[in-house]
Amino acid sequence: xxxxxxxxxxxxxxxxxxxxxxxxxxxxxxxxxxxxxxxxxxxxxxxxxxxxxxxxxxxxxxxxxxxxxxxxxxxxxxxxxxxxxxxxxxxxxxxxxxxxxxxxxxxxxxxxxxxxxxxxxxxxxxxxxxxxxxxxxxxxxxxxxxxxxxxxxxxxxxxxxxxxxxxxxxxxxxxxxxxxxxxxxxxxxxxxxxxxxxxxxxxxxxxxxxxxxxxxxxxxxxxxxxxxxxxxxxxxxxxxxxxxxxxxxxxxxxxxxxxxxxxxxxxxxxxxxxxxxxxxxxxxxxxxxxxxxxxxxxxxxxxxxxxxxxxxxxxxxxx
Length: 319
Prior knowledge:
Largest sheet: 8 strands, mixed
CATH superfamily: Alpha/Beta hydrolase fold, catalytic domain
Strand order of the largest sheet: 1-2-4-3-5-6-7-8
Strand content: 15-25%
Number of helices: 10
Number of domains: 1
CATH class: Alpha Beta
Distance between the termini: 45 Å
Radius of gyration: 18 Å
Structural class: alpha/beta
Number of strands: 8
CATH topology: Rossmann fold
Order of helices and strands: HHHEEEHEHHEHEHEHEH
Helix content: 25-40%
């Protein structure tokens, strides 16, 4: 079991950005209750936290990639923009146990017309029903499908990148490693948004009492995803990217995290190691911010800056 520790000097409420603290309940913020395996199905059935009406500036088409089993993707394209366009393959969050490709609708709805790209959102299978390597292979098949069908999709196959947040960021990091080593699909960039990278959970921040995603939830997510590998020394880098010993040859990387996120230490360490390996890396750390804070968009200064920084970096990579 992961030991839960206070989040550094001062209480979590004292360290939280003031606007974020108010949104989470004022001076005594509401901490998310731990999920257990029996509660996963009920959590999946809950409505999405942000269900925002979508615009008519983007077309959305669901496609099934052939295979056993098929992999469903949702293709987002800005209306009235001819190709070939760059492509962003997105991997949704959810601790490896929750979420769907619909969670990326808002991202592509906002950015596809603004930045001029085709979005391919992956509906990978979830743990514990499908543990590693199933979800990662689903993501790889979506990436390769976008590359192999670039002409049909109106995509520039030399400008295909990966974006993921939380567990989606962990899968995106592992996907970049897998694509590098298989050598079939060039990945132009990876944008890792507070990624879930390290199953060992031994850093200082990994045990902090935290908003949104707790140490107990983190243990559950990893145990479901890794199955019999969980808690062993046999976890491969493709399952938990922090275990990779060679980060050379990876694409330009954006990585962001809040100081009150339990992933803070492992994300900072990964960025440092990418830099040591010669990978162009841009790192952003936002004070007083918990996991998922960028979803607050305009409601706090750190979330505004984080969304802006993500967008500006992505615009540069898309050319």
